[in-house]
Each structure stands twice: as C-alpha cells, then as structure tokens.
From TrEMBL:
Gene3D superfamilies linked: Bacterial extracellular solute-binding protein, family 7
Family statement drawn from the similarity comment of this UniProt entry: Belongs to the bacterial solute-binding protein 7 family.
Primary localization: periplasm
Cellular compartment(s): Periplasm
NCBIfam families: dctP (TIGR00787), TRAP_S1 (NF037995)
Keywords of the record: Periplasm, Signal, Transport
Signal peptide as annotated in the record: 1-22
Record's protein name: TRAP transporter substrate-binding protein
Domain of life: Bacteria
Length: 329
C-alpha cells in the first residue's frame, strides 16, 4: 500500500495549463501494452476525438508500456484519484469488485459481434453502473483482446475430449482453471512473459489465446494446431476516476462519453480484423487450423457452462449471467 501511495503521489493526474489565454485540461491515460497494441491504438483514437469534440479544451495524454505501473497499480491510482484513466483487463479489476469477473466466465458469447451486442446494451450498462458505485471508477469504454482459441503442439482439437491430458498454460484464473479441468486438461501456471519459451521448450503443450496474439507474438513458430473454440472473450476496460469525471463540465462529460463510444467500436473492429489476420497467418505457415462451426462449438460451450454455478454468487447471480447471454443473441 505504501508503494501505491508513493506512486499515486508521484503522478500528476490532472494538469491544467494556461495557453493563449484559455485553460486546457490534460487527462493522463495509462496502460501496460505496446504502441502497436489495440489498447494504444484505441487510446489514440479516443484522444483524437476528445480533443475534437471539446475544441482542444480537454486533451488525453496516452502513455503506453507500463510507464505508470502495472495495470493493477494503475487501477489503484485511478481509484485514489491520482491518475485519471487507465486501460485494465477485466479479470484484474475483479479484486476491486468481484462482480466484474462475470466477463471472465466461459461460453458467454459466440463471437465478437455478439459480445459487443451484450456489452453495449442495457445489461452491460447495468454491470458497469454497479461497478462504478462499488469502486468509484467509471467505465468509459471497452476494448477486447479477441475471441480465444486453443493452440497446442500435440493434437487437432475438434471435440472437448481431444483436450484430455493436455498441459495448457493458465494465467492463474480460477475460472479458466475450472473450465479446462472440465475438459480433462491440466491447467499449468506460466507467466505471460515466459509463455513463448515454455511452448518452445514444451514445458506446456499449449495455451488459450486469441488468434491475434498468435499473429502478433508469433506463437505460430512454436505451435502446430489452432482451434477457434471462442470459449472466452478477453475484455479491456477504460476506467476513469468518477470524481474527476464529475469535475468536468457537462459538455466535457458528454464529449468524453461520445469519444469513448467511437474509440470502443474502433478498438473492437481492430481486434476482430486482427483475429482474422491471425487465422490467415496460421494457415499460411502450416498450422492445422480447426474452424469450429456453431453446432460444433456448442458441445464445448455446454461443457464449459457447467462451471457457471460454481462462480455465480461471485459475479452477481445466475440470473445476471443468463441475462447477459440473452442480450448477446
């Protein structure tokens, strides 16, 4: 906690400068990903639109590459009010409000368009409103890592039974661990930074990730098989300290939200295209790619949904889960 307070004290989150006789509000937005990542590209679009919609009265300073700390540390400083905005994965926000972990559940959405339909609708609004009341952090927009696939170097996964005995890398998520145990796989913790080497050295057989990651991080160099299970849809959330949001004028608040809507849709579009590019690259380099049809995917979804009840109380109840799924259809 002392580290967080020192970090919070060291960050100038809201800067007001006077230029040519007018005040300019500069909001700092941080994230941990690279400049080439969807997170940063979306943040730059957000900054562009905020400046445009406020005639330059509000600008966004987008800082990539963990310049302001890891995503949990940044979320804490946003909550404290010492940082204005951050992009943080939904699973890492669960320690602030366990209910936001609803987005970590498997087999919620068939694909990115269905996920957008749910997240941008009334049920998504309800979840984000409750998150704001609990944490003091407003979700300005969401982005995505992509619809997840299973990659491995042993077998073409066409049915859940094909995962039996596979050592699949786990990020330590209880939900993901329970899901893959339901298929007979053995979730094995490996830090993301060490994953390429672990796959290369066959410490693990495979992993769960988006085709976009397969492309951008070159996992196609060390894996033979890719199956589009779509079991998980990874979410990034752009959070803003609510007190800072309320300190802006009404027109500035409207501009922030409008810019967020556009940046969110832009980011999701980039992710969807990157997933398609990742699948194309996997095929090009000779990976065996299994594109599951909806009826084939349903078998995986039915097995994965068996873990919902284990986590339902944590994420707001089975009724909320069912409403979120229904909103995606």
């Amino acid at each position: 906690m002392k580290h967080v307070k020192r970090l919070a004290a060291s960050i100038l989150a809201l800067t007001v400068t006077v230029t040519a006789g007018h005040a300019e509000t500069v909001l700092k937005l941080g994230h941990v990903s690279s400049p080439e990542n969807v997170y940063h590209k979306g943040a730059l679009r957000f900054a562009e639109k905020v400046s445009e919609l406020t005639d330059g009265a509000v600008t966004i300073d987008a800082l990539c590459c963990a310049q302001l700390g890891n995503d949990v540390a940044q979320a804490k400083t946003v909550q404290l009010g010492a940082q204005d905005l951050a992009i943080v994965s939904s699973n890492n926000l669960a320690q602030f409000d366990p209910k936001i972990d609803i987005f970590s559940l498997p087999a919620l959405f068939q694909d990115i368009p269905s996920a957008q339909k749910a997240v941008f609708g009334p049920v998504g609004d309800e979840i984000f409103e409750n998150f704001m009341k609990t944490t003091g952090m407003r979700v300005i927009y969401t982005t995505a890592w992509g619809s997840r696939a299973v990659i491995n170097n042993k077998v073409a996964v066409k049915t859940p039974a094909d995962m039996d005995g596979l050592l699949l890398r786990s990020p330590g998520s209880p939900v993901m661990n329970a899901t893959y145990k339901a298929f007979g796989a053995n979730p094995t913790p490996v830090a993301f930074a060490e994953l390429f080497t672990a796959l290369q050295q066959k410490t693990v057989d495979g992993a769960d990730m988006s085709p976009c990651d397969v492309l951008t991080l070159k996992y196609y160099e060390v894996q033979n098989h890719l199956t589009t299970t779509n079991l998980f849809t990874g979410f990034g959330m752009v959070i803003m300290n609510e007190r800072k949001f309320q300190s802006l004028s009404e027109s500035e608040q409207e501009a922030i939200l409008a810019a967020g809507r556009e940046a969110g849709e832009y980011s999701w579009g980039l992710t969807a295209q990157c997933d398609l590019d990742g699948i194309a690259k996997a095929k090009e380099v000779g990976m065996e790619v299994v594109m599951l049809e909806p009826d084939e995917r349903a078998v995986f979804f039915d097995a994965a949904r068996g873990v919902w009840d284990e986590f339902a109380d944590r994420v707001g109840g089975r009724d909320l889960i069912d409403r979120l799924v229904a909103a995606s259809q």
